[in-house]
Design brief:
The chain is mostly helical. The protein folds into three domains: about 25-245, no CATH class; about 260-355, no CATH class; about 380-485, Serine Threonine Protein Phosphatase 5, Tetratricopeptide repeat. About 70% of the residues lie in helices and about 5% in strands. It is built from 25 helices and four strands. It has helices at about 25-40, 45-65, 70-75, 105-110, 115-130, 130-140, 145-155, 160-165, 170-180, 185-200, 205-220, 230, 235-245, 260-275, 280-290, 300-315, 320-330, 335-355, 355-365, 370-385, 385-400, 405-420, 420-435, 440-455, 460-485, and strands at about 45, 80-85, 90-95, 100-105. It is globular and about 65 Å long. The two termini are about 25 Å apart.
Length: about 475
Amino acid sequence: MLASTIPAAAQLPTLGDGSEMSSSAERRLGEKIARELYRDPDYIDDPVLVEYVRGIWEPLLQAARARGELTSELDERFAWQVLLGKDRSVNAFALPGGWLGLHLGLVSVTTSRDELASVLAHELSHVTQRHISRLVTQEKRQAPLMIAAMILGALAARKNSDAANAVMSGGQAMAVQNQLNFSREMEREADRVGYGVLTQAGFEPAGFASMFEKLQQASRLNDNGTYPYLRTHPMTTERSADMQARSQLVARERIDANAPAVLEHALMAARARALSSVGVDALRSLVSEATSLQAGAPALRRAATLYSASLAASRLRDTGTAVMYAQRLVDEQRDAPAAARQARLLLAEVALAGGRTERALSLLDAASRSRPELLLRSQAGIAAGNASQVAQLLQAWVATQPRDAFAWQVLAAAYHAQGQTLRAVRAEAEIQVAQLDYAAAVDRLKAAQDLVRRGAAAGDHIEASIIDTRTRQVESLLREQALER
C-alpha cells in the first residue's frame, strides 16, 4: 500500500506560507488519496501497533500545537492520522490534509521510540509548514485531481507498472511527479521544525541524529528499493551534521537494554517485522531464529526474537509453537510492566488464533478499555458465545469512536452471531464510512432499508430510524464527493 511518493521538506529561516491552495481543498485532496489507501491490500489496522504509534504521534501533535506550528485552522480541518502499510520497505511520507503513511519496514529498523518519533516529527512538519500545498502552487495551477492521480499512480507503480501508467499518463502529470520531491530548503525546514517538535514532546534529540546516521549509512549502499525513503528524503552530509550539532551528540548514545521504553519498542519492531514478512519461507526463518537462540543472548535480542517467532508461528498455523514462545516471553518479562503487557497480549492473540478461546480470555484484563484489549476481548467473546455482551461493549465504544472501522467490523460480527441482521448491515455500512468509501456505505444502508421494507427486522424501529437518518447523511457526503470529480 503506502508507497514512496510524497516526501518531506525544510529550511533554516521560515519559508512562510506561500500557498494558494486552501486548507479545505488540501483536506479533500488528502481524503481522495486516503480512500484508495484504505482499499489497498497492504493497508493494516493492527490495534497493537496503531496504539503504539499513536502513543508517539499524539505527543508530537500536542508539541506542534504548543509551539504554534499547528494552527487552530489546520488542527480542525486536517485528519492527523497515520495509516500503516505492511510493506517491508523503509518508508514514511506525508500526504495532503494531514494524512501520513508509515511502512512497517521502517518501524522494524528503528531501535528506539525516539528514532521513530524523529521520522514522524519530520513528516508532521511537512504538513504544518504547508509544503505539499506550496508544491502544488509551484507547479502552477495543476488541477488537484491530476495531483491525486499522479500520487496514486506512483503508489501503484510498486506493484504494477502498467496500472501506474494508466493512472499517471501525460507529460503534465510527469512534471508534477518531479515537483513532488520536496526541495532541499523544505527538507531543512522540516528537519529544523521537526527537531523542535520532537524535543518539546519529550523525546530524546539523539533519536534524530541516530536515525540520520542509519539512513545515511543505508544511502551509501546500492539502492535496491529497500529504502525508498532515501529517494524522497535524500540524505546529505549537511543535514546529518546539523542534526548532530543540534543534539550535541559527540558519541553514539548507548542503548540500555533494560530501559522499559527500549524493551517495549524492541517488541513492537519485532511485531512489525513478523507482520510485514511475506511467504512461508520468511515466516519460517523468524521461527528458526528462536530455535537457535542461545541461552546467554542479550535480553533485548532474546525478547524480540521470541516475539517475532511466536507471531510468525501463529501465521503459519503452528499454534503449539506460537503459544510456547509467547509463554516464554511472558515468563521472562514479568518485571517489566510495558513489555509484560505486550507479551500477554501476544499470548492471548496467538491462543485465540489457535482456537484456545478460554485461554485467551483468561489473559485479558476485563476492566481495560484500551483498544487492543477491547478488540481482542471482543473477538474472543464472540468465539465463546458471548456476542450479546460484546455488542453492548462495542456499542459504547463506537459511540465515542465512530471512525473505528475495526470496531465496527467486530460489532457487525457480534450482531450476525445474534441473528440481528439489520444492525449488522448498518455496522457494515459504518465500516465504509470510516474508510471514506461513501458509495459503498450507501449501498449497505440501502440494503438495510430493503430489509426493513421486507419486514426482516420487525420491531427494531429505533434502528430503522437510525438507518434512514444515516442514509441521508451519507448520501450528502457522497454528493460532496462527486462534486470533486
